[in-house]
Amino acid sequence: MLIDGNISQSSRNRSDWVAFADGEISRSVSGYTSVHFNENRSRFDSASAGIRYRPQDGKVLGARYKYGRDEPIYLQSDGTYFRDKLSQIDLAAQWPIRQNLYGVARFNYALNVGLPLDILAGLEYKKQLRLLERDRRRTALCNRLEYRTQQNPITKMPHS
Fold first, then answer.
1. Other CB atoms within 10 A of residue 67 CB
2. Which of 51, 77, 112, 133 lies deepest, with the highest CB count within 10 Å?
3. CB 75, CB 83: distance < 8 Å
4. What are the pLDDT digits (tens) for 40-78?
5. pTM of the model
6. Rounded to the nearest 10 degrees, how much is the dihedral formed by the CA atoms of 123, 124, 127, 128?
7. Exposed, middle or buried, 94 (CB in 10 Å: 0-12/13-18/19+)?
């Protein structure tokens, strides 16, 4: 069975291999890696590696590389995902400016097409599990200015 729920047309007679490692390099630096090897096709279907620098609570810098051979890229009008190869880097940061106010940024770049997928820069105000975020987001499809409130932060650091 495929991720989208359809039945695969290719015969599979061997199990895939999945491996991952995650650990602290030092008190403030951690890293991770993961791979997925398809035994039937004798190839890697996906791999990722990342590193995160966290010198203190609330201060985080992260970088990640991700490769996928058959990844969902975007949702089409018929409700199915357009799937293709994915090779991207993801850089993210969160840094306190003053009490309860943080600067956040994220840059996601597709190496295989040479274009940014998502660029986000903004401010987060955190108080009693409430978040008001104002950001300037630029994606491959549009530019928009957003205001959002929610219970949990929307910024997700690579591998957090």
1. 19
2. 133
3. no
4. 888 889 999 999 999 998 899 999 999 998 888 778 899
5. 0.67
6. 170
7. buried
